[in-house]
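Re: the 418-residue chain
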Amino acid sequence: MAMSSSSSSCITTALTRLVHLTPSSTPSNPKPFLSTQRPFFTFFTLKSSSSSLTSSSSSVKSSITTMSYNKQLAAAKKAASLAARLCQNVQKGLLQSDVQSKSDKSPVTVADYGSQVLVSFVLQKELPDQAFSLVAEEDSGDLRKEESQETLHRITKLVNDTIANDGSYKVSPLSEGDVLTIIDSGMSEGGPNGQHWVLDPIDGTKGFLRGDQYAIALGLLDEGKVVLGVLACPNLPLESIASGNKNALGRAAAGCLFSAQLSCGTYMESLDGSPPVKVHVSNTENPEEASFFESYEAAHSSHSLSGSIAKVKLGVKAPPVRIDSQAKYGALSRGDGAIYLRFPNKGYREKIWDHAAGYIVVAEAGGVASDAGGKPLDFSKGRYLDLDTGIIVTNQKLMPALLKAVQDSLKEEVLPSL
């Protein structure tokens, strides 16, 4: 099939970057699905991860891997979009019943598990010939308890209804045993060898319960590097939320889908299928004109430290834009703000699923992310990121000044311990 010049350029550039990845001599061995009382359905094909790169075959291997990213990205977009549809339905019912006022977390539990099941289901259905390894937040331990049987029943029904209503897959309804097995397919440890999907099925739990921002965040690691990412943000509008536009921050009818692939840029479209538009981070180089994002919940990141850095050190005049989840990465990638600061309590360990998809969405839009010490984010260490204090994200022009402001402020303020 003929290849467009833009696609060829994208693949060539990505290939150049992938060839310089550190070769591996140990094949990846993703954990197999856990056994259940009945055999797992046959359309899932599992194969052990193929052999690693060697000096003589790295170019061929990288070429094959790079060529496959388009198909993997399409599968990731399909998976995240279908999961978003399930979450939208659950959140709609949650808001109508006003259950959030009772601090009942069961709706988000159902949506969390249901989202993870759908993403795993779609990826394996769309990519049946590829080894499957998933690093995800949830496991089935709690759902196997006697008191959780009603919740498991609700999850199973919700997943089956979503698959049936979509109409893309002609399969028999999943049993509760199937659902438990699919959930546990996300127990991979990740690491520097082979390919691993990385998923947060609902990033922004409190935002979900409030009816505000949350995201289905899905990325792909190849030899420890993030090579593609998708953010489905059901409540993020297509229009800018710059300067804390309260109207824009209201619930959106369609929501946004951000997608990025190594060396191919970042694109935004609506979840109901508008044409993709290429986006770019803010080009501002004057810190005083730069607005910044931070976590909605003060417990998730130090607002006082972020405020000190932005206002005192950099002279930022705009108030912070506080929203939940990796929707911040998506908004930053299209220039709604110029800076994202995250400083969790001392002792907290960041999980890779909280940043992998957002990281590449911003990076491919021209942004840069590092820890507070200026080191690049390293997703090759397993399920956790080893960081110096926090995460800072901005454009290339602002990073030197921002990094200095962060380091100066950290010398003056001590974060509370967990």
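Confidence is low (pLDDT under 50) at residues 1-6, 14-67, 98-103.
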